[in-house]
Design a protein that fits this description.
Length: 531
C-alpha cells in the first residue's frame, strides 16, 4: 500500500539547477551568498551569478560540451559552488570526488565516469596526477594555481563569449556522485537537473525561513547531503552559505558565533560534540534556530541532550531534528519539520528518534522482507520510496539499477523502518550490508577486494561492528591466511591504511580458517556477526 506524504504536492519548476538555485539572488544581488568561514572572504549573489556565467563560458571555450563529465576534487570553499554551477550551466555533468580518496580510488571514478577534466587544488595535486596516470584526462585545472596548469582565473576569464545550452531538466544529468547503493562496489548515481530542483522544492514547506538565513557548510559538498541540502538549498533560499574546509570543533563553534549562523546541518558525530564537549560553553551560539542531523542514524537521547544543552544558553528555541535520505534520492525523502511547519492535522511533536515525515510529492511503502508483501500497519518493513527525487539510474549498470529501482519506480532503500499513526517514520535496521561510518558509505565488497589483493591473504570478508562509545559502525575484517603465512593483525591494518581512504580503514582483524559462504558463493555475514 502506497503511503503518501501528509504534505500537499508542490510544483516543481521545469528549470535547470543554476536557473532555479540562483534565481533567489537576483532580488538580493549585494547580499552575501558565500562566505569563507576561516578567512571571511565574501561572494555576493550578484557576483556568484556573474562568476557562474564565466566558468560556463570558459569550459565551453576549452572544448567541453553538453553531457561531458568534469570531476571536482576539492574541499569546501566558496569557489566550489561557483565551479559546480558553472559546470551545470555549461550543460556538463559534475562528478564530485571524496577529498580523502587515494589515487586508485580517484582513478576508478575518473575512468568509470568518463571524466574529461579534473578540477582540484594544489594540496591534492599529487594524488590527482597519480590518478590521471591510470585514467588519462584532457586537463587538470588547479584552482589555486600550479605550474603548467590552468587556474581559477582562467575559468573566470572575460574573453570567452557567454553560452546558452538547451537543457532538458527531466533527462539531462547535472551531477554524478558515486555511491555503493544498497550493496557492492561504488557506482555512478545519475542525478538530473529535475532531481535536484525537485528535492530543494520538496523540502521548502518544512522550513520556516528567516529573512537572512546563514547556513554553516562543514559537511562536504562532494557528499550529496552537502551538495543539495547545504549548498543548493541555502543558495536557493537567498541565504548565505558559510564554508569550512573540514570539521574542527573550535573553528565550527567560532564560525557559528562570529557569522551569526542560524542553521546547522550536521552528522551525528558533530551533534555528539555539541552535546558533550566543554568547548561548547565558551561560545555564543544564540543565533542558532535549527540543527538537523542526517547521513547516519541519530540516537534520540543524544538529540535531546544537545537540544537541552543549547537551550540553557541564550538560544531562542533551537530545535534539533533529523532527516533521512540517500544519494539515489538526491538525497532527501524524509525530514523533521521546523516548529510551526507540521502537516495539517499533526497532533504531537516529532519524536527525536524519528526521521520525520515524507517530504511532498513522495510516496512510501513498507515491505516485509520475508514475504515481499506490504507490512501490516505498525509493523516493520523495508522502506521503498517513489518520487521526483529518485535517481535516473546507475551509470552503465542496468543490472544494479533494476535491482534498486523496480519497474513501477519504487526505490528499494535496504533500510527497515516503521511509521506511526501520524505518518512519522523511524529507521530501525538495515537489510543491506553497507557499513555507515561518520556519514560515509563503506562497501564491504570493496574492502574485501583490496584485502584479497594481498599476497598472504587467501580469502576475506568484512562486516560492520558497533563501537560502544560512538555508536558508529566500524569495519572488521575476517581474514584467511595463505598457507605458510604468519600475517599479523597489525600488518593487515597497515596494508589497508595505505590502500583506502581513512573512513574505510579496517579497525579490527580476526583470523579464521574459512569464510562462511552459501552454496551460491554468497558470504554469510550473519554467521560472522554471530561469532
Amino acid at each position: 500500500m502506497a503511503l503518501a506524504s501528509p504534505y500537499p504536492d508542490v510544483e516543481i519548476p521545469n528549470l535547470s539547477v543554476p536557473e532555479f538555485v540562483l534565481a533567489a539572488g537576483k532580488d538580493r544581488p549585494d547580499a552575501p551568498a558565500l562566505i569563507d568561514g576561516l578567512k571571511g572572504d565574501v561572494i555576493t549573489h550578484g557576483q556568484l551569478a556573474a562568476y557562474v556565467d564565466r566558468v560556463a563560458a570558459n569550459l565551453h571555450a576549452r572544448g567541453l560540451r553538453k553531457g561531458d563529465v568534469v570531476a571536482v576534487f576539492c574541499p569546501n570553499t566558496p569557489w566550489f559552488p561557483v565551479v559546480f554551477h558553472g559546470i551545470a550551466a555549461a550543460g556538463c555533468v559534475m562528478s564530485p570526488i571524496n577529498s580523502l580518496y587515494t589515487p586508485d580510488e580517484i582513478a576508478f571514478q575518473l575512468k568509470d565516469s568518463g571524466a574529461k577534466v579534473l578540477i582540484t587544488i594544489s594540496l591534492f595535486l599529487d594524488r590527482a596526477k597519480a590518478a590521471a596516470e591510470k585514467s588519462p584526462l584532457d586537463e587538470i585545472v588547479v584552482l589555486d594555481g600550479a605550474e603548467g596548469h590552468a587556474n581559477l582565473f582562467d575559468l573566470l576569464g572575460a574573453d570567452a563569449p557567454s553560452v546558452q545550452v538547451d537543457i532538458d531538466p527531466a533527462n539531462d544529468l547535472v551531477t554524478l556522485p558515486y555511491s555503493s547503493g544498497t550493496t557492492g562496489l561504488p557506482k555512478g548515481v545519475m542525478l538530473t537537473h529535475r532531481n535536484l530542483v525537485a528535492n530543494v522544492a520538496q523540502c521548502r514547506p518544512l522550513i520556516s525561513l528567516g529573512e537572512d538565513e546563514r547556513i554553516i557548510a562543514v559537511l562536504p559538498f562532494f557528499h550529496i547531503y552537502g551538495l543539495t541540502v547545504l549548498m543548493n538549498q541555502g543558495l536557493a533560499w537567498g541565504g548565505a552559505v558559510v564554508t569550512l574546509p573540514r570539521f574542527d570543533l573550535e573553528d565550527f563553534l567560532r564560525t557559528i558565533q562570529d557569522q551569526k549562523i542560524t542553521r546547522a546541518f550536521v552528522a551525528p558525530p558533530i551533534l555528539l560534540a555539541m552535546a558533550k564537549h566543554p568547548l561548547v560553553d565558551q561560545y555564543d551560539l544564540s543565533s542558532l534556530t535549527s540543527i538537523l542531523s542526517g547521513a547516519a542514524p541519530l540516537d534520540e537521547q543524544l538529540a535531546l541532550a544537545a537540544q537541552n544543552r543549547l537551550r540553557k544558553g541564550a538560544a531562542d528555541g533551537v530545535n534539533v531534528g533529523q532527516g533521512y535520505g540517500m544519494t539515489e534520492l538526491s538525497p532527501v525523502s524524509h525530514t523533521s519539520p521546523d516548529p510551526g511547519c507540521e502537516p495539517p492535522g499533526s497532533q504531537t511533536d516529532v519524536p527525536k528518534g524519528s526521521v520525520g515525515y515524507a517530504v511532498p510529492n513522495t510516496e512510501c511503502r513498507l515491505i516485509d522482507p520475508g514475504t515481499g508483501e506490504d507490512a501490516a500497519p505498525g509493523e516493520r518493513g523495508e522502506l521503498w520510496i517513489r518520487g521526483p527525487q529518485v535517481m535516473k539510474g546507475y551509470l552503465n549498470n542496468a543490472e544494479a539499477t533494476t535491482n534498486t529501482v523496480d519497474g513501477e519506480g519504487w526505490l528499494h532503500t535496504g533500510d527497515v523502518a516503521i511509521v506511526d499513526d501520524e505518518g512519522r517514520y523511524t529507521v530501525v535496521d538495515r537489510v543491506k550490508e553497507l557499513i555507515k561510518y561518520k556519514g560515509y558509505q563503506v562497501a564491504p565488497a570493496e574492502l574485501e577486494a583490496v584485502l584479497i589483493g594481498h599476497d598472504e591473504i587467501a580469502d576475506a570478508a568484512v562486516i560492520g561492528v558497533p563501537d560502544k562509545e560512538s555508536g558508529e559502525e566500524l569495519p572488521k575484517a575476517f581474514v584467511v591466511r595463505a598457507p605458510g603465512s604468519e600475517l599479523t593483525e597489525e600488518a593487515v591494518m597497515e596494508y589497508m591504511a595505505v590502500k583506502v581512504a581513512p573512513h574505510k580503514k579496517v579497525r579490527f582483524v580476526e583470523f579464521i580458517d574459512a569464510v562462511p559462504k552459501s552454496a551460491a558463493g554468497k558470504i554469510l555475514r550473519k554467521d560472522l556477526k554471530a561469532r
